[in-house]
Design a protein that fits this description.
By secondary structure, the protein is α/β, with parallel strands linked by helices. The protein folds into two domains: 213 residues, Glycogen Phosphorylase B (Rossmann fold), CATH 3.40.50.2000; 152 residues, 3-Layer(aba) Sandwich (Rossmann fold), CATH 3.40.50.2000. The strands form two sheets. Strands 3-2-1-4-5-6-7 form a seven-stranded parallel β-sheet, with helices on both faces. The chain is globular and about 65 Å long. Keywords: Transferase. Pfam families: Glyco_trans_1_4.
Length: 398
């Protein structure tokens, strides 16, 4: 059995944001079975050297990604390619991938995220496992529907070109993976692709455990917490909606309620939300302290794809969760989180839980039990072993 080349659009460590959590656990799982070579981009200088990954890799190639958005946009227009691809198009990465494939006995290429599929050989001799995670073209199509003026055209163009690219990649891949069956079904329906599989996200329930050792944050009574990467558009839209439309409804009945936005790189729009009833923390060393201090954890995402790690983490920490319909859609929660579709429904769900601590505690305990039973990483990734061991041409999608 040959080696495996793992391509990732971000260094899969530390596992402290949604995409890096999934890529890290995939890498760790694959490394238990195969000799793995990693090729990944670094967004920050500190990611150029991650010695922790040596335990899972036979070799590492880390390329600093420094291309500006204007340059990537210009290249996208000139080449008639999606901006999502030109932003990650890098000659050094291309040479590195070619070098690994020429030097090592690689029989499987695992591609994490659509941006990295451009580095596949034109006619791969290796088995190709493509983890799209989400259908990115559908995300841009949703952006286009909500946008006006030039941005509507830009998003529609990105959706159209990216969808064609995703379809072409799926035709070449031996398996295409998505984070939920709903996302996989959407991809099959929109592209006609076969060999499409759902491999859901999991959660480390030993680490995300309210009794685990971590630095505590002083509890603030009626503290409502949101966690996430705060320069990511869906997260920005979510906290803006909550702070401006939902929180005032809650504070009408519960004046002491405060909203904490916990996550790195808050945009100016997010920072502007800070005030007497809204806390913007920026990057924190350990999100578990804030989750443990929360009376309620919310996930008011208007646009969400697949399984939301932020929701699984809150459930594992035995916190009562109130999620939007979109945020809850990919999670098999079996009624252990509260779900609302509108500002009024979200506010009422939070208000009811704040007014009944015993009910809130019971819901949080049920959520943790559900996560342990349903979302352990070993159980979620077990089916990956069969895909990696399959012959080069897989059967039809299940």
């Amino acid at each position: 059995m040959g080696d495996l080349l793992f391509l990732a659009h971000r260094v899969p460590f530390p596992p402290d944001r949604g995409d890096k959590i999934r890529s890290f656990h995939l890498l760790r799982h694959l490394a238990a079975h195969r000799r793995v070579h990693l090729a990944a981009f670094a967004d920050e200088l500190r990611d150029m050297d991650r010695p922790e990954l040596a335990a899972f890799t036979a070799s590492q190639t880390i390329v600093r990604r420094s291309k500006s958005q204007p340059m990537a946009a210009l290249q996208a227009l000139v080449s008639r390619r999606p901006l999502s691809l030109t932003a990650f198009d890098d000659a050094a990465m291309r040479r590195s991938v070619e070098d690994v494939l020429a030097r090592e006995n690689v029989d499987t290429i695992f591609v994490f995220s659509g941006q990295m599929a451009q580095y596949l050989p034109v006619a791969p001799r290796q088995r190709v496992i493509m983890d799209f995670v989400d259908m990115d073209s559908a995300k841009f199509a949703a952006y286009a529907e909500a946008a006006k003026g030039p941005m509507r055209w830009i998003y529609a163009r990105e959706a159209r070109l990216l969808k064609a690219f995703e379809r072409a990649v799926a035709e070449r891949a031996d398996a295409s993976l998505f984070v939920s069956e709903a996302e996989a079904a959407l991809f099959r329906r929109e592209t006609g692709a076969a060999r499409v599989h759902a491999i859901e996200n999991g959660i480390d329930t030993a680490s995300f455990d309210p009794s685990a050792p971590f630095e505590r944050v002083p509890e603030g009574g009626a503290l409502i917490v949101f966690t996430g990467q705060m320069d990511y558009r869906p997260n920005v839209e979510a906290v803006t909606w909550f702070a401006e439309d939902i929180l005032p409804r809650i504070r009408g009945a519960c004046p002491q309620a405060r909203f904490a936005i916990v996550g790195r790189d808050p945009t100016d729009a997010v920072k502007a939300l800070a005030g007497a009833s809204v806390i913007v923390t920026g990057e924190v060393a350990d999100v578990r302290g804030w989750l443990a201090a929360a009376a309620i954890v919310v996930a008011p995402l208007k646009l969400a794809r697949g399984v939301q790690n932020k929701v699984l983490e809150a459930m594992a920490m035995a916190r009562p969760v109130v999620a939007s319909t979109a945020a809850a859609e990919g999670i098999d929660h079996d009624g252990t989180i509260a779900v609302g579709a509108t500002s009024a429904e979200m506010a009422e769900a939070v208000r009811l839980l704040l007014s009944d601590p015993r009910k809130a505690t019971a819901l949080g305990d049920a959520a943790r039990a559900r996560v342990i039973a349903r979302y352990g990483w070993d159980a979620r990734l077990a089916q990956l072993d069969a895909l990696i061991g399959l012959p080069l041409v897989l059967g039809e999608a299940a």
